[in-house]
Amino acid sequence: MVAVLFLIGTKKETPDVVPWLLDAKAHPRKPLYDMASEVPLVLYDCAFEEATFTYSKHVVQKLLYNFEQIWNGHTLRAMLPRAFIGGIVHGYQTQQEQTQEGDRETPLLLQTCDYKPLTKFTSAVYQSMTARATGLSYEERLSSLSDRKLALRQFHDERKSEANENPDAFSSHRREAALVGLEKARNSDK
């Protein structure tokens, strides 16, 4: 849902794609697209009827300490790419000043806000959801799973018959493992 909302927000899709995607009878197969990042999705508020929560100072202090450690770790990881970007830009600008052959009409595109991605460098042509390849439908996935279970059962049946027909070729633990595997497969199908 979030990935589709981002596509609508960036004007790559129109809002009418939502009812189109939700019409499972007309379109039983989902178009292929990447999931949105789970990082910004945070449950931050819940309400519980007839429940009272008490907080001890020790627990709150420990929570604050843990969140501060997480914050520090993420801040350090975020600052490393920024430092590398700064070094690359400085090196590029120094090179341009020394050679005087810089392309003055096309300045470097730098991200100036933490929350605005650089979308100008995407070179791929966007393909609408309605025109994309689709995955398997629910019925096709069920059929595929049934085919795999059937193949597994046949494999175990073959091993069992081989073990019963030629017990000397199978050590007792291999024969027993084949029989146990067959029973497990049959029980999991039920």
What can you see in these coordinates?
- This protein is mostly helical and 190 residues long.
- Among the domains are: 1-68, no CATH class; 136-190.
- 54% of the residues lie in helices and 0% in strands.
- The chain has five helices and no strands.
- It has helices at 2-9, 17-22, 57-99, 138-165, 172-189.
- Helix 4 runs antiparallel to helix 5 (172-189).
- The longest helix is centred in the middle third of the chain and has 43 residues, at 57-99.
- Residues 113-118 have low confidence and may be disordered.
Task: Give the arrangement of secondary structure elements.
Layout: H1 2-9, H2 17-22, H3 57-99, H4 138-165, H5 172-189
Helix pairs in contact: 4-5
Keywords:
single chain, 190 residues, mainly alpha, extended
